[in-house]
Amino acid sequence: MSKNINFLLPVDGNPIPLSEVNDYLFNKKIMGEGVAIKPSGDIIYAPIDGEISAIYESKHAIIIKSEVGLIVLIHVGIDSAKLEGKGFATYVKVGDKVNSGDKILYFDRSFVEKNVSDITPIVITNPEIIESFDINYDARKALDTLMQITIK
Predict the structure, then answer these.
(1) Alpha helices in the chain (DSSP H)
(2) Could you give the C-alpha distances from 118 to 11, 41, 81, 100, 112, in angstroms and in order?
(3) Which residue among 75, 116, 135, 146 is the active-site one?
(4) The pTM is what?
(5) Which class for 124: exposed (0-12), middle (13-18), buried (19 or more C-beta within 10 A)?
(6) Domains in the chain: how many in total?
(7) Side by side, which strands form the sheet with 130-135?
(8) Which residues pair with 121 in a beta bridge?
(9) 75 is catalytic
(10) pLDDT tens, 59-112?
(11) Angle at 34 between CA 151 and CA 39, to 5 degrees
(12) Which domain holds residue 107?
């Protein structure tokens, strides 16, 4: 039985194809399937309901697992781990339950952009459970619908 998920834009900005991200782990879809965002905002919101399953030590990336098993990596910036957490603050901790629209992360966008790329990949790390997904490249405001995903 398939299940449809409304996946929200987690930050104000412009969606771009993963193929345009200047990092082979993302542009070759080694990390998974999804989309990247050129952010214009600095707050990351949960794009789906789920549980925070990981927060990278440098706070630049968060993984959310949904109740239907979708695993989502939100990776703020390219090469942003080398910032060692400077410019990042989390609103959540591992194990927290989140609803779509909850604030989960703040980042100092101008600081990130000055030091590394601020391009933010949003990747489903277990794409094998997806039957189909449709990306809305016209989404611009956080919490607009970014993707319609059908889980097998």
Answers:
(1) 24-27, 109-115
(2) 12, 11, 12, 22, 6
(3) 75
(4) 0.97
(5) buried
(6) 1
(7) 3-8, 145-151, 130-135
(8) 36
(9) yes
(10) 999 999 999 999 999 999 999 999 999 999 999 999 999 999 999 999 999 999
(11) 130
(12) 3-151
